[in-house]
Design goal:
Elements: H1 2-19, H2 27-35, E1 52-62, E2 67-77, E3 84-90, E4 117-123, E5 126-127, E6 137-146, E7 151-161, E8 170-173, E9 176-180, E10 185-186, E11 189-190, E12 194-195, E13 211-220, E14 224-227, E15 230-231, H3 234-237, H4 240-249, E16 256-259, H5 261-265, E17 275-285, E18 289-293, E19 297-306, E20 311-319, H6 329-342, E21 353-358, E22 363-365, E23 368-371, H7 378-390, H8 392-397, H9 410-425, H10 427-443, H11 463-470, H12 472-485, H13 487-501, H14 508-519, H15 524-531, E24 539-546, E25 550-557, E26 565-571, E27 576-581, E28 592-598, E29 603-609, E30 622-624
Parallel strand pairs: 1-13, 20-21, 21-23
Antiparallel strand pairs: 1-2, 2-7, 3-6, 3-10, 4-5, 4-7, 8-9, 9-18, 11-12, 13-17, 14-18, 15-17, 16-19, 19-20, 22-23, 24-25, 25-28, 26-27, 26-29, 29-30
Helix pairs in contact: 6-7, 7-9, 9-10, 9-12, 11-12, 12-13, 13-14
Signal peptide: 1-20
Keywords: Signal
Protein name: M1 family metallopeptidase
Length: 625
C-alpha cells in the first residue's frame, strides 16, 4: 500500500511538472524582459525600439566589366536608449575576398582580388578613415558620440568587381548581373545583443534593419534593370510602347510580354541614351536587390492580393528566352501570391511587386527571387519559386535574425512550400516530395549533429546539421503544432504573432510566448519537446491485444518527438480503419502510451504511419496476426 501511494504521488508530481514546464531563457532575453523591450506574453514590450536608416543610393554598373561603383547618403536614426560611440558596417560582398572566412570550399572564379573598397567615409561631413582590411564586418569609431534618440548622416562611396561565379549575387552571364548586397550598410543594433557582429560566411543568411530606400541604378543603354521596390521613372528609361505595356501590366490578370527577345536584341526596349538611370523606391524594408541584363526577356502581369481592398501586386519575370520553365514564372507567381494571401499564412502579400530573375542561387530577396532554370521540370521549378516567395513573410515581413535562428524563416518557408504543394499537386505527391527532399536524409542519418536542439544558434552549426535544423525539423514542428491546435486555433495564433511582430525583430521566445498567449494554452511542453531537446522520430508498436470490440495498442516513443501519427488497422476481410493521433498524446511526457481502437471485425494487422514523419526504425511500426 505504501509503495502504491508513493508511486501515485510521484506520478501526480511528474504530471504537474509536465503541465507547467518552463523554457530555458538566455540571460540577454531575461534582461530584455526586465528592460521592458519584450514581454513574457510574447508582445513587443512597452519600451521596444529598433534603429532605422534612410538610404539614398546611386549605383553604376559598368558592363561588360562588372565593375560596380556607388555612393550613398544614410540618415541613421538611433532609437535606442544607448549612446553609440561607434558604428558597425557590413560589406557582405567581401565574402569574395581571398582571405575572408567562409563555411566551405569555393572555386577560384568565386574570388576577387580586393573585395569591396570604401573610397570615402564621412560622418556628419567629417572624414573618417576606413580600414579596408576587413571581412564582412568592420567597426568605425565615430568622431563624436551618437546620443540616444538622435541621428547622424553618413556619406559613403565605394567600388567592387562582381564575382565571375555567381552565388547569391554576381555575374550570371557576360552581360547579365545580379546586384545583391551591393551597398555598405549599418549593421543591426538591437535590444538583446547590441551590435550584430556575426561575419557572413555564405551558409547562414542575414539580419537587417527595416530601412527606407531610394535607389538609382545607372546602366548602359539596352540594359533593363529589375529591382526591389516600385520603378519611379519608367517613361524616362523605356521606349513609349514598352513603358505603356509595363503600366498596363499593373492591372492585367493575364500574362503580358513586356519585352521580347527580338525587341531586346534590336534596341527597341530602353531609351537609346548612352546610359540610363533607373530609379526605385521602397519603404520600411530589410534590403534592396537589383538585376540587369541586355538580353533577358521580360514578362509581367498582376494579381489581387487583398480582396478586401482590391490591392494588386505587380508580378514580373526576367530570364533568358531559352529557359523553358521561366516562361511559366509569372503564372507561378500569380498563383503563389494569391494562395499564400488567402490560405497559409493567410496574410495579404505585403509588397507592391514580386520579380523572378533567372540566376543561380535559388534565393529570396525583398520583392525578388533569384532562381536557377531547371528546363522542362516545371513542377520542381514551381516548388522552388513557391519556397522563395514564401520567404516574403519570413524573414522580410517578420524581421527574423536568420544568422542566429534560421529555423524562424527557413522552417516556415518549408512549411508553406509543403502546404501550397498539396493545393498544386495533391497530398500524395506533396507528401512524397517532402519525405524525399526534407526528411529522408535527416532521419536516416544517426549522427549526433542531426539531433542537436533546433534552438541551437545557426551560425554555430555546420553541414547537414545546420540544414536539417533550419529546414526540415522546424517545419515538422510547425506542422505538428498545426495538427495539435487544429487549423482554426493555429491560424488565429499564427496571425496574432505576425500582427504583433511584422516590421519588427522577433526572437524565438517571442514566438513561443505569442503562440501560448494567442492559443490560450501553455505549450511549453511542446516547445521543450521540439526545440530544446535532442529528440528524433522513432515510434515502436510494442504490443497489440485484440478483443471482440477493441484493439489495445502499446506504443513507445523511443525518439521522443511529439509527432502526430495514424493508426491503420487492417481487418481479415481486407478492409481497413484509420484513427489519427495528434501530438497531444505525448503531452504528459510519457514515452509509453496505450491507444484503444474500437473494432467490429477480426484484426489482421496494425501499422503506425507517420506519413511525412518518417520513422528511424520503420520495421517495428507494424504488427501482423
Amino acid at each position: 500500500m505504501t509503495r502504491m501511494l508513493i508511486a501515485l504521488v510521484l506520478m501526480l508530481g511528474y504530471a504537474g511538472m509536465a503541465s507547467a514546464q518552463e523554457l530555458y531563457v538566455p540571460r540577454n532575453i531575461k534582461k530584455a524582459y526586465a528592460n521592458k523591450t519584450r514581454s513574457r506574453n510574447g508582445q513587443p514590450g512597452e519600451r521596444y525600439w529598433q534603429n532605422k536608416g534612410r538610404y539614398d543610393i546611386q549605383l553604376k554598373v559598368n558592363a561588360p566589366s562588372g565593375v560596380v561603383s556607388g555612393q550613398e547618403n544614410i540618415r541613421y536614426i538611433n532609437n535606442s536608449p544607448d549612446t553609440l560611440r561607434s558604428l558597425v558596417i557590413r560589406l557582405i560582398c567581401n565574402l569574395h575576398k581571398v582571405n575572408a572566412p567562409r563555411s566551405g570550399y569555393v572555386s577560384k572564379d568565386f574570388l576577387t582580388e580586393e573585395g569591396v573598397t570604401i573610397d570615402t567615409f564621412l560622418v556628419n561631413g567629417v572624414n573618417v578613415p576606413f580600414d579596408n582590411d576587413i571581412a564582412t564586418v568592420g567597426n568605425v569609431k565615430l568622431p563624436s558620440a551618437l546620443n540616444a534618440k538622435d541621428s547622424l548622416n553618413l556619406h559613403i562611396s565605394w567600388h567592387y568587381t562582381l564575382s565571375q561565379q555567381s552565388g547569391r549575387e554576381g555575374k550570371i552571364d557576360s552581360t547579365t548581373f545580379f546586384l545583391a548586397y551591393a551597398y555598405p550598410r549599418v549593421s543591426v543594433y538591437d535590444d538583446y545583443n547590441g551590435w550584430d557582429l556575426i561575419e557572413h560566411m555564405d551558409r547562414v543568411e542575414f539580419y537587417s534593419d527595416f530601412n527606407d530606400y531610394n535607389v538609382a541604378v545607372t546602366v548602359p543603354k539596352n540594359y533593363v534593370v529589375w529591382g526591389t521596390g516600385v520603378l519611379q521613372n519608367g517613361a524616362d528609361v523605356l521606349q513609349p510602347e514598352i513603358a505603356k505595356r509595363l503600366k498596363d501590366s499593373y492591372t492585367a490578370d493575364q500574362l503580358m510580354h513586356i519585352a521580347s527577345k527580338e525587341e531586346m536584341s534590336n534596341g527597341k526596349v530602353t531609351q537609346q541614351k548612352d546610359w540610363n538611370t533607373w530609379k526605385f523606391s521602397a519603404s520600411h524594408i530589410a534590403d534592396v536587390t537589383f538585376g540587369t541584363s541586355n538580353h533577358y526577356v521580360w514578362d509581367a502581369a498582376s494579381v489581387v492580393v487583398d480582396s478586401s481592398t482590391g490591392r494588386r501586386t505587380s508580378v514580373q519575370a526576367a530570364y533568358d528566352d531559352a529557359a523553358e520553365d521561366f516562361h511559366h514564372s509569372v503564372d507561378f507567381s500569380r498563383y503563389a501570391l494569391d494562395w499564400f494571401s488567402r490560405n497559409w499564412p493567410g496574410v495579404a502579400y505585403p509588397f507592391p511587386t514580386m520579380t523572378a530573375f533567372q540566376g543561380f542561387a535559388d534565393m529570396e530577396y525583398p520583392m525578388m527571387v533569384n532562381d536557377a532554370t531547371v528546363g522542362k521540370q516545371l513542377g520542381f521549378a514551381q516548388l522552388v519559386q513557391d519556397h522563395e516567395i514564401a520567404h516574403t513573410y519570413f524573414p522580410f515581413y517578420m524581421g527574423i535574425n536568420e544568422s542566429r535562428y534560421a529555423f524562424m524563416d527557413e522552417g516556415w518557408a518549408t512549411t508553406f512550400e509543403y502546404l501550397i504543394g498539396i493545393a498544386e499537386k495533391g497530398k500524395a505527391a506533396a507528401d512524397k516530395f517532402y519525405q524525399l527532399f526534407r526528411v529522408r536524409s535527416y532521419i536516416n542519418d544517426a549522427a549526433a549533429e542531426e539531433d542537436q536542439p533546433i534552438i541551437s544558434q545557426s551560425h554555430q552549426l555546420s553541414g547537414v546539421g545546420y540544414g536539417n535544423n533550419a529546414y526540415g525539423k522546424p517545419s515538422l514542428a510547425y506542422l505538428a503544432l498545426k495538427d495539435l491546435l487544429g487549423d482554426q486555433v493555429f491560424r488565429k495564433s499564427l496571425h496574432a504573432y505576425m500582427n504583433s511582430w511584422n516590421g519588427k525583430h522577433p526572437m524565438p521566445w517571442d514566438f513561443f510566448n505569442s503562440i501560448n498567449t494567442a492559443s490560450g494554452q501553455d505549450l511549453n511542453w511542446f516547445w521543450n519537446n521540439w526545440f530544446f531537446s535532442n529528440n528524433y522520430i522513432d515510434l515502436q508498436l510494442a504490443d497489440v491485444k485484440t478483443k471482440k470490440d477493441n484493439a489495445e495498442l502499446t506504443i513507445l516513443n523511443n525518439g521522443g518527438f511529439a509527432i502526430p501519427f495514424d493508426v491503420v488497422v487492417t481487418f481479415e476481410d481486407g478492409s481497413s480503419k484509420t484513427v489519427h493521433q495528434t501530438p497531444a498524446v505525448w503531452k504528459n511526457g510519457s514515452k509509453r502510451i496505450t491507444v484503444n481502437v474500437p473494432v467490429n471485425k477480426n484484426v489482421a494487422a496494425v501499422k503506425l504511419d507517420g506519413i511525412i514523419y518518417m520513422d528511424y526504425t520503420p520495421a517495428d511500426n507494424e504488427w501482423k496476426k
